[in-house]
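Reply to dn_fold:

You asked what the input looked like. This is it:
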Amino acid sequence: MRNKNLYYKLSFIIVLAILCGNFVYPNYFNKFSDFLKLPRIPETPFKLGLDLQGGSHLVYEADLSQIEEQGQEETMAGLRDIIERRVNLFGVKEPIVQIQKERLIVELAGIKDVSEAIKMIGQTPYLEFKEQRSEEETQKILAKQKEIEGKTQEEIQQIPDWQLAFEDPYFMPTLLTGKYLKKAGVGFEQAVPNPIVLLEFNDEGAKIFGELTSKNIGKPLAIYIDFQPISTPVVQEEISGGRAQISGDFTLEEAKNLARNLNAGALPVPIKLISQQSVGPSLGKISLDESLKAGIFGFLAILLFLVIFYRIPGLFASFSLLIYASIILSLFKLIPVVLTLAGIAGFLLSLGMAVDANILIFSRMREELKEGKTYLLSLEEGFRRAWPSIRDGNFTTILVGLILFYFGTGFVQGFALTLVIGNLIGMFTAIFITNNFLRCFAGDKSPKWLFLWR
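and this is what came back:
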């Protein structure tokens, strides 16, 4: 039974290693798949940070002088959401937007037109309410959009009423915009304590809102920020007095986010660019190449050390570390983790911790073997005695990593995230993978070759 369980575990390890290895570098497998007409493994690229890919680091300062102190944090959080939405629309992948008191730090990796992004980010968020179009208008706009497909700008302008193709086919603008909204907040329904979003308009906005709801009973009234819909509540009745509520299957967090976005779109909070730093793609490529070179040489040096000083167990530990590297890199692609120089440093440090776990186990094994115990008993005792040190060392490192991730920003968070993930996988490879590799050779050893195991 024990051999059967060991067989299953080894099979799992081998399958895991093959899957992770091919996911990290699918080129060879995909060539084989193309030859046999089999499905390909998706070629998912690593997400590279600003310092490796090149891009811009922008620092904005928000003018909160007109905002009450208790509402400043919510306003900044709303502005952060708006800016993230804007840079995503601009085509920036994995933008990083962080808050530091009254400042917003924006990192745009791989962006080419920095000036246009700066112009877009600096605008005040625009909030508007839109009513549903008639079915006839919707079909007319959709038909016009289909008519211009595949045509050049010159050809489009020759089509009658070509401007229709660039309008929203489902909703049309109204007079109600963010300048009429006094505030938005979170409340709860009386009958059932479900979260709702409460709206309050000024006098002019209350009049416009009343007229708008009276002619759209039973129809959706869409709420847009920066021309993107964030909610489409259905009007249940005419609403007068300038107060309204948006109800639905909200969680408390979703209701807070919606209220925050509404406030950010309604409040004129200007932001100004106070710092801009650019990292050229060539500099980022040099940093990446140097980091990879250092990582490969360091990894090979670790493998050489393990084989020279621990011989056969060191060889198995080297195989475990190769699997460790493939698992880690797969997770970096799947999560995905935005890799920076600091993040790579965290990964390499966690690799050292994984090696440390193997060394503790092998040192304990040697002590047990010197006392004349059998190989299997020495293996079990080595793992049992080394585990408290491995557990405590990794636990404290993970704890520090979590603290750095929670309180840190930018590169510090990248370092902490890769360090925590690396330590968790490092413990798994040392305790599970290396252990089961060594158990494959639990039989009696010939005295002639015993020095290879000691």
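The chain is about 55% helix and 15% strand.
Hope that clears it up.
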